[in-house]
Amino acid sequence: MALLEVRDLHVGFPVAGRMVEVVRGVTFSIEAGEALGLVGESGSGKSQTALAILRLLRHPGRVTRGSVRFEGRELTTASEAAMRSLRGSSLSIVFQDALSGLNPVFPIGTQLTDVIMAHRGLSRRAARDAAVEALGLVGIRDAAGRLGQYPHQFSGGMRQRVLIAMAVACRPKLLIADEPTTALDVTVQAQIVALLHDLRARLGLALLFITHNLDLMAEICDRAVVLYGGMMMEDAPVGALFAAPLQPYSRALLECVPRLGDRAGSLRPIEGASPVPGRLGPGCPFEPRCGVALDRCAAERPPEQRRGDHRVACWAAAS
Amino acid sequence: MWALLSRLLGSAAVLVAVSLVLFALIHANPVSPARVVLGNDASEEDIAQFDADNGLDRPVAEQYLAWASRSLRGEFGRSLVDDTSISRTIAQTMPVTVELVLWAFLLALVLAIPLGIVSALHEDRWVDHLARALATVGVSIPGFWLGLMLIAWGAVGLGWFPAGGYVPWTEGALPHLRSMVLPAMALGLYYVAIISRMTRSAVADVMMADHVRVSRAMGLGRGRIMVYILRNALSPIVTVAAMSFGYMFGWALIVEQVFTLPGMSRALLNAIFRRDYIVILDVVLIITAFFLAANIVADLLYRLLDPRIAE
Ligand SMILES: Nc1ncnc2c1ncn2[C@@H]1O[C@H](COP(=O)(O)OP(=O)(O)OP(=O)(O)O)[C@@H](O)[C@H]1O
Ligand code: SF4
Ligand SMILES: [Mg+2]
């Protein structure tokens, strides 16, 4: 049994009386200790997938279909209290808003100990020690002395470290990292990725790493799921994906990885316009931009199929 | 510290400016207080004598300096008209005004803050619509009209409260408090609207903040998250509340008139009718000083509550 199993996940937002689906049947799983990358261009549904897993979708968005199982337990129908005790403890997350993710009017020590006390049943004193330990774990020196400081006294990279410390303080089995480096300087980005890599090894946590940046993804992930227009396009081991992407969108995405001289790690856009949720037809969302599209591509959704250790959704890749 | 100092200096400058303008306005009017004191059939000589006795024949600038130096020494001086001590007049009327403002302020806080919070928590549900409608009505009703409505409702209709007039503490706590209920409502309801609106928008803003999503994502309990939200929303609410407190001193004058309370408005109106300009000046400046002090307190609290500015 996988640690996390997402099956046929649909997320919709009611817009003008109609349900606009922004995640449209995504399926993947993560084994304990595994690092999975979730990649795709802006708006492809990566964040909504992550939020749906944690049941943190912003109202009125909701899961309209599908299932999320964590350690075998169904989350889409779990009670709010059950979700609360799961969040921040065995299933945790780091967001991209490193600069605004901490509460500006509480010392970081209070924020850390509050999370620890919510899950680990420790006294405030013991929770404080655990907070110091967690800060040490993410490489913040003189942690005890910094507990009383406020977020604005930390740099952006340091704030993200504090948020990571908060997310791993209760030893999660799965850490979701939603573009954890986007708000940070390029030099700091590498440090944060190295930190996640290190934490994964030390704490044995599984990672769902959401990113635009294929280089960063390749650095720490074992496997990658490519999303487009709210659908899974390809799911493959990182090495295999980079060496031989089977799906036309994955191929286009990888061709867009910058060559020498481009800004490190940034994506160059693919020809054509990004899909707009709610204005997608029944077929493959990539069809308007696909160079090898077939007649049936626009009309029928391509089925997912196994090709070696790849999972691919594409009519052209069908055998 | 510098900020506080500059606020204090700024406030002093405002007081000076207000006193100068008042002085100029009063002296632009040619009717001497002597007319009031000595009556219409006083001779020109009597009036000249009165003016000379009271220094009213001196150049305006000199009169101003004389008044200012006395005020700086903390003396109010004596009324031109009946020679009563102005400090006594103020000691008699100010407590009524201050008490009225305090009750109205308390009422505003007690109603507005829970209303604003509930409204933000149930954004776009019926409680929220109701609270917002009330707030819109509250800010658009003129104070004196609200006062009359309250009299019609609470005094004439229900008969629970006196329609006006003031019962001192010495005649019993309950009668005293009853005489303050309608005036406090008349003065406070506008600020219920103002403060509840601010509370609602401050809380609603914070609820959308990234750090609140993080708190949820870390599995904090509802109560703890609420504490986090309220603590963040506190600065703007406290600021608006403190500033409202200052404004209330101005509106209190009108409410006092509607309910015939013997507060500072009475001293002020008497002085205006009698051209007792030293009293006018002193009362207006005291009210201005309350207003300015409330603003300084608002500023200080804002700084204290926000650790990003506090250091
Ligand atoms: N509250 C909302 N109401 C309607 N649509 C929404 C809402 N929130 C997000 N969406 C839409 O859902 C789609 C997927 O958004 P999502 O945030 O998952 O994208 P993403 O892949 O994380 O992109 P990015 O890389 O920019 O973070 C987007 O088209 C977005 O416009
Ligand atoms: S299904 Fe058709 S349109 Fe979609 S990627 Fe494959 S070939 Fe292109
Ligand atoms: Mg996103």
TrEMBL record, chain A:
Gene3D superfamilies recorded: P-loop containing nucleotide triphosphate hydrolases
Name recorded for this polypeptide: ABC transporter ATP-binding protein
InterPro entries: AAA+_ATPase (IPR003593), ABC_Ni/Peptide_Import (IPR050388), ABC_transporter-like_ATP-bd (IPR003439), ABC_transporter-like_CS (IPR017871), Oligopep_ABC_C (IPR013563), P-loop_NTPase (IPR027417)
Pfam families linked to this entry: ABC_tran, oligo_HPY
Record CDD domains: ABC_NikE_OppD_transporters
Domain ABC transporter stretches: 4-254
Molecular function in Gene Ontology: ATP binding; ATP hydrolysis activity
GO BP terms in the entry: peptide transport; transmembrane transport
PROSITE patterns referenced in this protein's UniProt entry, alphabetically: ABC_TRANSPORTER_1 (PS00211), ABC_TRANSPORTER_2 (PS50893)
Entries under SMART domains matching the protein: AAA
Membrane topology according to the record: Peripheral membrane protein
Keywords assigned by UniProt, alphabetized: ATP-binding, Cell membrane, Membrane, Nucleotide-binding, Transport
A cellular component term, taken from the record's GO annotations: plasma membrane
Predominant place of localization: membrane
Residues making up the signal peptide according to the UniProt record: none
Automatic annotation (TrEMBL), chain B:
Domain ABC transmembrane type-1: 94-302
GO biological process: transmembrane transport
Primary location: membrane
Entry's transmembrane regions: 100-121, 133-156, 176-194, 233-254, 277-302
PROSITE patterns named among the record's database cross-references: ABC_TM1
Keyword Membrane belongs to the record: yes
Gene3D superfamilies linked to this entry: MetI-like
Key words of the record: Cell membrane, Membrane, Transmembrane, Transmembrane helix, Transport
Pfam entry (one): BPD_transp_1
GO cellular component: plasma membrane
Domain of life (superkingdom): Bacteria
Localisation: Cell membrane
Membrane topology of this protein: Multi-pass membrane protein
Family assignment from sequence similarity: Belongs to the binding-protein-dependent transport system permease family.
Protein name: ABC transporter permease
